[in-house]
TrEMBL record:
It comes from Segatella maculosa OT 289. PANTHER family: CYTOPLASMIC PROTEIN, CYTOPLASMIC PROTEIN-RELATED. This is DUF488 domain-containing protein. It holds the Pfam family DUF488-N3i. It comes from the Bacteria.
Length: 123
């Protein structure tokens, strides 16, 4: 069964990545666009600048960040199209959500994957 995976954009490209989506609003430092092997840069699905700055990648802010980012996604008119894209790509292989944050547990890609998975079965 194909799945939605999350991975730091700085990690090596893997054949199991499948369709690779950069989910950050800003292009990650030190990554050349021509060598990134990114299928889609979905900056429209990233947290707003104000929410990202408030979060500050502080683990203690993560629960509230999760709530607020989920609310943003629910109101984002592009989110439904994004879920449909993921669903289409999952029929072909895995989908990997790429992010630049150092913390692999407390980042927006974790929230985004949960959001997508919740909506895949109902859309």
């Amino acid at each position: 069964m194909n799945e939605i995976r999350i991975k730091r954009v700085y990690q090596a490209i893997d054949e199991l990545d499948g369709y690779r989506i950069l989910t950050d609003r800003l292009w990650p430092r030190g990554i050349a666009k021509d060598k990134a092997d990114i299928d889609l840069w979905a900056k429209f699905i990233a947290p707003t600048v104000s929410l990202r700055q408030w979060f500050g990648h502080k683990p203690e802010n993560f629960p509230l960040f999760t709530e607020r980012y989920t609310e943003e996604l629910e109101k984002n008119p592009e989110a439904k199209k994004f879920i449909e894209l993921c669903e289409t790509q999952l029929k072909k292989g895995n989908v990997t959500l790429l992010y630049g944050a150092k913390d692999e547990t407390h980042n927006h890609a974790v929230v985004l994957r949960a959001f997508i998975n919740r909506h895949l079965s109902t859309e």
